[in-house]
Structures are given as C-alpha cells and as structure tokens.
Amino acid sequence: MIEQFLKFCVVGGSGLFVDFGITYLCKEWLRLNKYAANSLGFLCASTTNYVLNRLWTFHNENPDIAGQPLREAPRNEQGRPGGIRATTARLPERTHRGAGQNFRG
C-alpha cells in the first residue's frame, strides 16, 4: 500500500512537469492565449497521469488498455472541467504576485 501511494505521488509529480511544460510551450513558443495554453497543459497532464496510474501504479494487466480510456471517458471527463476551471482561475493571481511571468497575456 505504501509503495502504491509513493508511485501515485511520483505520477502526480510527473503530471506537474507535463502541465507546466505544455503550458509554457504553448504560451511562449506557439503564442497561444494563456487560458488555452493552460487548458491544454492540464488536459495533457491529466491524460498522462491517467495512463501512468493505470499501467504503473495500479498494474492494470488488461491487454485492451488503449481502448479503456475511450470507454471510461464519459465518467472521467466529469472532473476535468472543474480542474481546468480551478487551475485557470489562479492565473490572474499568479500574474499579480509576479510569480507567473510567463502567464502574462
């Protein structure tokens, strides 16, 4: 149980890097709107977290792992809009404090 929790934390930490990396790439290199860039970063991170947790943390041995997200998407998508709203709502706060220089739009 402890090992599974630690793996879950590692996957979550990797999601942080995916989220910030995609957001930075989209905002700074592709010149997307800060909200669009943040939404893409969040969607990529939540997708990679889902796949990594299914395969590595929880050892899903189902050979149809590629088709599972499509079947489970309606249930999983219910939480994503709330997560996107929560992360995008903090953009102006981060920019005001000066911590989010890359998020100025």
SSE order, one letter for each helix or strand: HHHHH
Total number of β-strand segments?
0
Approximately what portion of the residues adopt beta-strand conformation?
under 5%
How far the N terminus sits from the C terminus, by CA atoms, comes to: 44 Å
Characterize the main sheet: none
Mean pLDDT: 78
**Nearest-angstrom radius of gyration?**
15 Å
Q: Which stretches of 5+ consecutive residues score pLDDT under 50?
A: none
Which percent bin holds the helix content?
A: over 70%
Entry summary:
The protein is mainly alpha-helical. The chain has helices at residues 2-29, 34-57, 68-77, 80-89, 91-96.
Report what the structure shows.
- With 105 residues, the chain is mostly helical.
- Helix content is 74%, strand content 0%.
- The chain contains 5 helices and no strands.
- Helix 1 (2-29) runs antiparallel to helix 2 and helix 2 crosses helix 4 (80-89).
- The mean pLDDT is 78.
List keywords for this structure.
0% strand; elongated; 105 residues; mainly alpha
Write the layout of secondary structure elements.
Layout: H1 2-29, H2 34-57, H3 68-77, H4 80-89, H5 91-96
